[in-house]
Design brief:
With 204 residues, the protein is α/β, with parallel strands linked by helices. It is built from six helices and twelve strands. The longest helix is centred in the N-terminal third of the chain and has 13 residues. It starts with a helix and ends with a strand. 31% of the residues are buried.
């Protein structure tokens, strides 16, 4: 008997009389939302994370996005963003003509994106790199992220979100501005991503 077999034999002997593990219930509420989730709950949860929450409709969305960006700010957008979401500022679109490097992204003040869905119970926004969202670096490097969430993209729970998400996509979960705490529990923002997060909830 080699060393590996000896170790495995001892483990089997040690756990031979162990009680049968209890079955953990997995009856989460997984059903996909057939209607928008709780928009008000989502707004409160996002606000709790120190993100700024705004409301817009199709008539006001352009003005609200524009008003969140200084006139002299450098703005980058993902490809495929709807024209009505584009701020009335000078913008650069990632990938047109070439994909921006990380140092180039770092020179931008703000990024405007859409998302895949929002989760009401946690105030989390999920991006999957699709049209109007861009690649992960695009949303993590500029210091100001403006994210537009349509009300029909909001689900109530995390299991509902995972039921709706495509696990083969590069998923990015955003819950408020990037923040961490040091050993003295002093909050430090902007360590791993944008220090400023504006979430625009877009209704009909």
């Amino acid at each position: 008997m080699n060393a590996r077999s000896e170790i495995l034999s001892r483990i089997r002997s040690a756990i031979a009389d162990a009680p049968t593990p209890e079955t953990i219930p997995r009856d989460y509420h997984r059903q996909s939302a057939s209607e928008p989730g709780n928009v008000e709950f989502f707004a409160r949860a996002v606000d709790d994370y120190r993100a700024r929450v705004h409301r817009a409709d199709q008539n006001t969305i352009t003005g609200i996005v524009t008003g969140l960006i200084d006139e002299d700010a450098r703005v980058v957008l993902p490809p495929g963003m709807p024209d009505t979401w584009r701020p009335r500022r000078d913008v650069v679109v990632d990938g047109e003509p070439g994909v921006l490097s990380t140092p180039e992204l770092d020179a931008f003040d703000a990024v405007v994106t859409g998302c895949t869905l929002g989760i009401a119970t946690t105030g989390t926004i999920v991006l999957d790199g699709g049209q109007g969202q861009g690649r992960r670096a695009l949303t993590l490097v500029p210091d100001h992220h403006i994210c537009i969430v349509r009300t029909d993209q909001i689900v109530d729970t995390v299991p509902q979100a995972f039921q709706a998400l495509d696990p083969t996509r590069p998923l990015t979960f955003v819950s408020g501005p990037s923040a961490t705490s040091d050993i003295e529990l002093e909050r430090v923002e902007g360590v791993h991503g944008p220090r400023n997060l504006d979430v625009i909830i877009l209704g009909a």
